[in-house]
Design brief:
By secondary structure, the chain is α/β, with parallel strands linked by helices. The protein has 4 domains: 266 residues, 2-enoyl-CoA Hydratase, Chain A, domain 1 (Alpha-Beta Complex); 179 residues, Rossmann fold (3-Layer(aba) Sandwich); 85 residues, N-(1-d-carboxylethyl)-l-norvaline Dehydrogenase, domain 2 (Orthogonal Bundle), CATH 1.10.1040.10; 87 residues, N-(1-d-carboxylethyl)-l-norvaline Dehydrogenase, domain 2. The chain is 47% helix and 12% strand.
């Protein structure tokens, strides 16, 4: 065995050389790995008697993509393009031996190898689009030469990971070998290639899969049209499409690759990719808690209890059943319990209809759910989550009962979206066991989990909640206790400005349109209609004190009544309502106000900058650990466009002095309760940032 460098070794087995890479945790294509790979290839070429080379990785995966921490820094070591040229120019067949995942730049290296062997569990793909990028090392040019333009478009714009069997069928892998026999299987395959005299196959030279689509612009136009909603606001999908177009229509591989290179450089230096790369790291940083070490002991969770089988409770239960954890669902009536379990079953069956689950998997997950009308059935649960409606008295009553029932050491969690976790904890004799676990609706779909740390919540319980969040596939972010926690508190600040502008002359659809065009999935008024305007509203106590009151009194309670801020057709498509316009105008007149024209710029600035201001207060109060956690919450829980990086990243992009200047310019329009964050003022004055 020859040690090439600290991460690379070269061994031989007769006429077969084996170049092995080991750069934990994921064999990222960092400078040291690229150096070892290039040197190993060159040394193998110089060795007499070598007729083939197997490229393999140790650890849990094949080559990962580029080391994105190197982006924006001066280049070090050999380029990936140089290594790819070295592979393709080898005088003998180079066989990539793939296990785990072969993604991004790692898969682009594999595509330069003459052949690819993998175990069945292996996956490959080009997920760069998720970082606002495109495969910049020939991936957009080589992929369609194997799978055709249509499939390549789907793969590069979705970032889909393709499994072993499908990859074999598509031609991405040449052979599958048994699990645990990758090296032996790859060497055997190499010997077979030599014995049969197979050519040194270069993907770059293959055009047969491109020819059917050459001169067929309809393929690309139709693909853009079919995915317009999914790609809205993003640059990277369009740039990936242009690269596939170039692969199909260019006169040579090198011509198409030059298009790819030009567009890659434009993306990597642009703000969208910077934002998406920032969000990628922010999400991982959110897992780290300053005073809770990574090795903090956690509570083993083998059984979960959930109180409330409604929309939230049922959705929460699905998360645990999905990962094989048994769940006991407790309700107050058999009818409510049956209804909740039926909704869960229907959700699973709908997934099966879409091909995401088998009938056996549906049965398996439903078997993990046990319904009960007796809270005593929660006695042996390791984690109990209360998911009833937002009423402090009821929640405290439930926690008092749990305190007497649930075994010592168990975690007692509340799904409250805004109520004081500290007050809830006072209902127990073990406040250290109480934590907020705020799921977002629909709980089985939404990625965010706000973990709310009470004043007395133990480190072990905090660590357990964060760990469980990760286990069930959520993005967990820590919040301290305050009304609305991180996400809803900031949402309230935006809502206050939206309502204020409604009274100043803007219409609901004006405000919603501006925020939608900014990249939000919907504006505040469309969101209110979706949720139901009558949530928390009572006909008995309503006095027409707000526009919402007047709408509800008129029977306009949102999508469920086909009328709210908007009018809705049978398919729930929204259109501006003259009835709402009249209600708003009359209310404004009664207030003695004179409506004015409000620009799109003012709408956007007042909504988004008010959010930044509130977020700065949250940060200064210690409710959030770091600015990036706030951005993680808003990207994963509220639909802030990831290509804008979150409110704090956006503020840094605009410039904090600009944010302050514009908020000051609006002055009294911001409302009597509005005040500028001292932290925001200090950072703006000092020329500092929140996220850079």
């Amino acid at each position: 065995m020859t040690t090439i460098n600290p991460v690379t070794t070269l061994t031989t087995d007769g006429e077969i050389a084996v170049l092995s890479l080991n750069h934990p945790p994921v064999n990222a294509l960092s400078a040291i790995l690229r150096e070892g790979l290039l040197a190993g290839l060159q040394q193998a070429k110089a060795m007499p008697g070598i007729r083939a080379l197997v490229l393999i990785c140790e650890g849990r995966t094949f080559l990962a993509g580029a080391d994105i921490s190197e982006f924006g820094k001066p280049p070090q070591g050999p380029s990936l393009h140089l290594i790819q040229d070295e592979i393709e120019a080898a005088p003998f067949p180079v066989v990539a031996a793939i296990h785990g995942t072969s993604l991004g730049g790692g898969f682009e290296v594999a595509l330069c190898c003459h052949y690819r062997v993998a175990v069945p569990s292996a996956k490959c793909g080009l997920p760069e689009v998720h970082l606002g990028l495109l495969p910049g090392a020939g991936g957009t040019q080589r992929l369609p030469r194997i799978v055709g333009a249509a499939k390549a478009l789907e793969m590069v714009t979705s970032g889909t990971h393709v499994g072993g069997a499908e990859s074999l069928a598509m031609g991405l892998f040449d052979q599958l070998v048994p699990e645990g026999e990758l090296l032996a299987g790859a060497k055997q395959f190499a010997r077979q290639v030599l014995a049969e005299g197979r050519p040194l196959r270069k993907v770059r030279d293959a055009d047969d899969k491109l020819l059917p689509d050459r001169g067929n612009p309809a393929l690309f136009a139709n693909f853009r049209a079919a995915n317009a909603k999914r790609f809205r606001g993003f640059l990277a999908p369009e740039y990936n499409i242009r690269c596939i177009e170039a692969a199909v229509n260019s006169t040579s591989f090198d011509e198409g690759k030059q298009v790819e290179r030009t567009l890659f450089l434009e993306l990597v230096s642009g703000i969208q990719s910077q934002a998406q790369r920032y969000a990628f790291f922010a999400e991982r940083q959110a897992q780290k808690i300053g005073d809770v070490p990574a090795d903090t002991p956690t509570v083993p969770v083998a059984r979960v209890g959930i109180i409330g089988a409604g929309t939230m409770g049922g959705g929460i239960a699905m998360n645990f059943a999905n990962v094989g954890l048994p769940v006991t669902l407790v309700e107050t009536s058999q009818a409510a319990l049956d209804k909740g379990l039926a909704v869960v079953r229907r959700n699973y069956e709908n997934s099966a209809k879409r091909g995401k689950l088998t009938a056996a998997q549906v049965a398996q997950r439903m078997a993990l759910l046990t319904g009960s009308l007796d809270m005593q059935s929660l006695a042996d649960c390791d984690l109990v989550i209360e998911a009833v409606f937002e009423n402090m008295a009821i929640k405290k009553e439930i926690f008092a009962r749990l305190d007497a029932i649930v075994k010592p050491g168990a975690v007692l969690a509340t799904n409250t979206s805004a109520l004081n976790v500290n007050e809830i904890a006072t209902a127990t004799t073990r406040p250290e066991a109480v934590v907020g676990m705020h799921f977002f609706s629909p709980a089985n779909v939404m990625k965010l989990l706000e973990v709310v740390r009470g004043d007395k919540t133990s480190k072990a319980v905090v660590a357990t909640a964060m760990q469980i969040g990760k286990k069930i596939g959520k993005v967990a972010a820590l919040s301290g206790v305050c009304p609305g926690f991180i996400g809803n508190r900031i949402l309230a600040a935006r809502g206050a400005q939206s309502q204020a502008m409604l009274l100043e002359g803007a219409m609901p659809w004006d405000i919603d349109r501006v925020l939608y065009d900014f990249g939000m999935p919907m504006g505040p008024f469309a969101m209110s209609d979706l949720a139901g305007l009558d949530i928390g509203w009572s006909a008995e106590t309503s006095r027409g004190a707000s526009i919402r009151d007047l709408l509800c009194e008129a029977g306009r309670r949102g999508q469920k009544t086909s009328a709210g801020y908007y009018d809705y057709d049978e398919a729930r498509n929204a259109r501006p309502s003259e009835v709402t316009r009249g209600i708003v105008s009359a209310f404004v007149a009664r207030q003695g106000r004179t409506p004015r024209a409000i620009s799109d710029t003012e709408i956007l600035e007042r909504c988004t900058y008010a959010m930044v201001n509130e977020a700065a207060k949250i940060l200064e109060e210690g409710i959030a650990q770091r600015a990036s956690d706030i951005d993680t919450v808003w990207i994963n829980g509220y639909g802030w466009p990831v290509y804008r990086g979150g409110p704090m990243f956006h503020a840094d992009t605009v410039g904090l002095p600009t944010v302050v200047e514009r908020l000051q310019a609006y002055g009294d329009r911001m409302g009597p309760g509005f005040s500028l964050s001292p932290l925001l003022l200090r950072k703006a004055a000092a020329g500092e940032h929140f996220t850079r």
